[in-house]
């Protein structure tokens, strides 16, 4: 079964498409019924007034009368979280300072997540007299380990420093190259699993079709240097992705020959197929891997809007059916036989304590 067959077999697309289209016409503000454009750590850091690592001490819904009064002033209120700052990575928040963050609980777009008892990296802005999370679910992150925490701290610090340097250069009349700094940042943060989506989405947004579907921003294609591709490849081999970053990374490394990348990608795909309900991005990762092994694929053409919607729904909401999965596994088995591959399984990553934030934001 080729990728095109796999996608045509997405039997649930019409029903799911109807649900999405219906959501678009729910009465009320458009933002309440439509996923927002994805936002990475680079943009979040630029937009946020404060970036804090903080303990979520409490989180509660406003009483109905207070919520009604608040929503007459701004529709973004309804829930409150009290945070106690551990560290400020941007802004002048003091260690130990308490602040209240307001948000509204919606199914779409997905809200920021504030889980009592956990520590959150929060990107905050002050609007209508209240602290809010920037870009809703994209603006709260929950590190799964100290290593993840350091990756977030480093990504935010590098982005903040790049923006500050560019601003200072503009003030003194020098035309700093913020675009080059951004690409360098994207490559660097792509090496770590916790921040990998944030780097790769800027480099190859179409690699995450489910989220790119809602991103109407016009982007100039990024051309990486050989050294930058090698940097991506090393990060891939050392810590291979087992999520939607796999096709994104393979797309970014298209044309970059590296046998270690090929073999590690095969191991990642083999591992992904052992998961309960393999995700919808697996066929695209497989097509990119076949290409790396020199196999001829059908000529690529620009997908139609309906095909984009189908792919978005499959990636974000559904996944392959049982019959589709069986056919894909047969094709994967033949591929391994053709190339004499026996890929060993990779260890599964530690899941973040709170799902549905950042690049894992639900649609």
Properties at a glance:
alpha+beta, OB fold (Dihydrolipoamide Acetyltransferase, E2P), 6-stranded antiparallel β-sheet, 44% helix
Q: Could you write a compact summary of the structure shown?
A:
Residues 344-363 are annotated as: Disordered. The protein is an alpha+beta fold and 363 residues long.
Description:
With 363 residues, the chain is of the alpha+beta class. The protein is built from 14 helices and 6 strands. The chain has helices at residues 3-8, 13-24, 41-47, 64-73, 146-171, 178-189, 196-203, 209-212, 226-238, 245-252, 259-272, 282-292, 305-316, 322-338, and strands at 50-61, 79-90, 98-103, 119-127, 130-133, 140-141. Strands 1, 2, 3, 4, 5 and 6 form a 6-stranded antiparallel sheet that branches. It is globular, with a radius of gyration of 21 Å. The relative contact order is 0.14. Residues 1-31 have low confidence and may be disordered.
Biggest sheet character = 6 strands, antiparallel
Strand content: 5-15%
User: With helices defined by DSSP (H or I, 4 residues minimum), what is the helix count?
Assistant: 14
Rg value: 21 Å
Order of helices and strands: HHHEHEEEEEHHHHHHHHHH
Principal-axes shape call: globular
On the 0 to 100 scale, the average pLDDT is 87
Instruction: Identify low-pLDDT runs.
Output: 1-31
Helix content: 40-55%
Number of strands: 6
What is the chains' assembly state? single chain
Q: State the end-to-end CA separation.
A: 28 Å
Q: Pairing-aware structural class of the strands and helices?
A: alpha+beta
